[in-house]
Design a protein that fits this description.
272 residues, alpha/beta, TIM Barrel, eight-stranded parallel beta sheet, binds orotidine-5'-monophosphate
């Protein structure tokens, strides 16, 4: 199914704008999983199985797996999500971006090897670096626009011809690159005013919004500034605050409670 259709259906079916980020850090795993050969897969699988009716998407972060030599666990995890929770889109957070010939390999990595439904990209190499992804019309292409980190302002807020660079990025992508309707933008929850600007510039283009939870973003400001008129349009992502909500054998239940709390907190500010 087309990423955008799957996302819209998941927003509705689960009444949720929550995206759970899958960022495994074994040192934070509960004691009973420490040292187990397949701990990374088992931990993430249990989180997924405990939250799948509460989310609009999952977002595994590739470096968290690759650094642990757990690429194989990531492949199996995405296959597990597709098999057990069909219709929940998986965003591979890889922030790729390179010249066209290399980009083609990143396309294969994300969509053929990992079978992700969408991928995060850095747009700063320009359109030709993104084109091979855009051409996969059924896949989501999620481009960094105004990131959540403190240093986002260093470059993204620079004045370029009377407006900040990130606003050019938002406009160019929404106006020129989104010919297949498969683009989305990353705008951090920690920059609510910029989020509002981006929403104004891009119409109903979906926004991936990390920075809630561990990075301290404000849920109400994100929902009020970022939702579309129909009360959707956002994938509000949280990783650590959900994954590591509990430290014991009941960690998955604790993650479910944290995801439920986030979903309900978002929903109280949404217009339905
Ligand atoms: O593309 C991303 O997902 C991303 C963009 C951004 O601007 N900020 C950001 O934190 N992220 C990712 O979102 C996740 C945030 O994790 P938590 O702060 O634990 O919720 C990490 O995997 C980051 O790599």
């Amino acid at each position: 199914m087309h990423f955008m259709q799957a996302l819209q259906q998941a927003w509705t079916r689960n009444n949720s704008l929550v995206c759970v980020g899958l960022d495994p850090e074994p040192s934070k795993f509960p004691a009973h999983l420490q040292g187990r050969a397949d701990a990374v897969f088992e931990f993430c699988r249990d989180i997924v199985d405990a939250t799948a009716d509460l989310v609009c998407s999952y977002k595994p972060q590739i470096a968290h797996f690759a650094a642990l030599r757990a690429d194989d666990a990531l492949e199996r995890l995405i296959a597990h999500i597709h098999a057990k929770h069909p219709g929940i889109p998986v965003i591979l957070d890889a922030k790729r971006g390179d010249i066209g010939s290399t980009a083609q390999h990143y396309v294969s990595e994300a969509f053929d090897r990992y079978a992700a439904d969408a991928v995060t990209l850095n747009p700063y190499l320009g359109r030709d670096s993104v084109q091979p992804f855009l051409d996969r019309a059924d896949k989501g292409v999620i481009l960094l626009c105004h990131t959540s980190n403190p240093g986002a302002a260093d470059l993204q807020d620079l004045d370029v011809g009377g407006k900040p660079l990130y606003q050019h990025v938002a406009q160019i992508i929404a106006r020129d690159w989104n010919t297949h309707g498969n683009c989305a933008l990353v705008t951090g929850a920690t920059w609510p005013e910029q989020l509002a600007e981006v929403r104004t510039l891009v119409g109903d283009v979906p926004l991936l919004v990390p920075g809630i939870g561990a990075q301290g973003g404000d849920v109400e400001a994100v929902v009020r500034n970022g939702c579309t008129a129909d009360g959707t349009g956002l994938m509000i992502s949280s990783s650590r605050a959900i994954l590591y909500a509990g430290k014991g054998e009941d960690f998955a239940r604790a993650a479910r409670s944290a995801a439920l709390e986030l979903r309900d907190s978002i929903n109280q500010y949404r217009k339905h």
